[in-house]
């Protein structure tokens, strides 16, 4: 027998496709769903066993699948859920909303889950996101991927920018990866006519770099909590430079750590982000070190 919760979702979905402001019944459905989710969400990081953690991550995924079928969910705040390990980002133009979370297994490995919502003129489109990292057979730095091939990350920053007169969204993401290393991810999300796309050739490793990459992936030692920082006044991205922690570790990313220097990604007039050394930029006295950045919560020491 279908639950009362599911029946109510179906009833509202059939009668409120074009609504944006929840009526009292829809608001109650979303609120009750959020209250259920906020009690489950901490378990996919802190539960005692992998089975319990995995079950919690899938419970959140299945529950959101029903709730996000309601068009009003796009404008719903999800305030308590955002404080319970689920990252929820909305673009300033209100056309994109991203929900992402990570399952942390007891061996220190990470798996990612999420949903992407996009607002069109008369509808809200929802796309499920499941981590396909282990299924990727080649380097994804140069790959444009549809939501079904999502590479997985916990996104913590979304920045709109223009390229070829089209609005795109710069994403900063964290991937705890494995017991050996963490990853920081910078990529572009854009909306094609057919479907959203993760990745776009928008990054060059210098003015003379002949080929653009679709995403930047920085891998480092698992004790390093690496992230990108966006300086809004200068419209630049600041990132740590990485270096091996000892000479013999060259090319082994498991032993790479921040060197104390920084890279800059500056967007040119064509909308391409060009890398250069921080020392090549005059940022003004006292601005050579980026301000502290809220970083995604790492697993407890005993879990990695």
Describe the structure.
The protein has 304 residues and is of the alpha+beta class. The protein has a domain at 142-304. 18% of the residues lie in helices and 34% in strands. It has 5 helices and 14 strands. The protein has helices at 4-15, 24-40, 43-46, 50-67, 79-82, and strands spanning 87-90, 96-104, 110-119, 124-130, 154-163, 166-175, 181-191, 196-198, 203-204, 215-221, 229-231, 236-244, 256-267, 273-277. Strands 5, 6, 7, 8 and 10 form a 5-stranded antiparallel β-sheet that branches. Helix 2 packs antiparallel against helix 4 (50-67).
Cα-atom radius of gyration: 20 Å
Oligomeric status: single chain
Poorly predicted regions: 1-19, 285-304
Estimated structural class:
alpha+beta
Helix content: 10-25%
User: Distance between the terminal alpha carbons, to the nearest Å?
Assistant: 42 Å
Major sheet summary line = 5 strands, antiparallel
Q: Given the C-alpha coordinates, what overall shape results?
A: globular
Number of strands: 14
Enumerate how many helices there are, as a single number: 5
Strand content: 25-35%
Average pLDDT rating: 85
Helix-strand string: HHHHHEEEEEEEEEEEEEE
Task: Label this structure with key terms.
304 residues; alpha+beta; 5-stranded antiparallel beta sheet; 5-stranded mixed beta sheet; 5 helices; 14 strands
Task: Give the arrangement of secondary structure elements.
Layout: H1 4-15, H2 24-40, H3 43-46, H4 50-67, H5 79-82, E1 87-90, E2 96-104, E3 110-119, E4 124-130, E5 154-163, E6 166-175, E7 181-191, E8 196-198, E9 203-204, E10 215-221, E11 229-231, E12 236-244, E13 256-267, E14 273-277
Parallel strand pairs: 9-14
Antiparallel strand pairs: 1-2, 2-3, 3-4, 5-6, 6-7, 7-8, 7-10, 11-12, 12-13, 13-14
């Amino acid at each position: 027998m279908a639950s009362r919760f599911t029946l109510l979702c179906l009833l509202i979905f059939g009668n409120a496709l074009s609504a944006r402001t929840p009526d009292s019944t829809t608001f109650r459905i979303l609120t009750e769903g959020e209250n259920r989710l906020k009690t489950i969400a901490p378990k996919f990081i802190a539960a005692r066993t992998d089975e319990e953690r995995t079950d919690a991550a899938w419970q959140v995924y299945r529950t959101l699948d029903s709730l996000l079928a309601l068009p009003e969910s796009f404008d719903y705040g999800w305030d308590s859920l955002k404080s319970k390990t689920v990252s929820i980002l909305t673009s300033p133009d209100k056309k994109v909303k991203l929900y992402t979370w990570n399952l942390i297994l007891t061996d220190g490995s990470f798996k990612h889950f999420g949903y992407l919502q996009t607002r069109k003129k008369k509808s809200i489109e929802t796309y499920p996101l499941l981590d396909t990292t282990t299924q990727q057979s080649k380097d994804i730095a140069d790959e444009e991927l549809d939501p079904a091939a999502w590479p997985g990350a916990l996104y913590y920053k979304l920045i709109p920018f223009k390229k070829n007169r089209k609005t795109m969204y710069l994403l900063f993401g964290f991937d705890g990866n494995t017991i050996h290393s963490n990853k920081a991810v910078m990529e572009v999300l854009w909306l094609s006519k057919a479907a959203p796309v993760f990745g776009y050739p928008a990054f060059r490793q210098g003015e003379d770099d002949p080929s653009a990459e679709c995403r930047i992936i920085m891998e480092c030692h698992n004790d390093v909590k690496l992230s990108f920082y966006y300086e809004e006044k200068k419209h630049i991205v600041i990132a740590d430079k990485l270096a091996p922690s000892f000479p013999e570790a060259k090319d082994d990313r498991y032993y790479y750590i921040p060197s104390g220097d920084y890279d800059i990604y500056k967007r040119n007039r064509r909308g391409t982000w060009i890398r250069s050394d921080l020392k090549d930029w005059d940022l003004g006295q006292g601005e050579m070190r980026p301000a502290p950045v809220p970083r995604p919560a790492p697993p407890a020491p005993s879990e990695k």
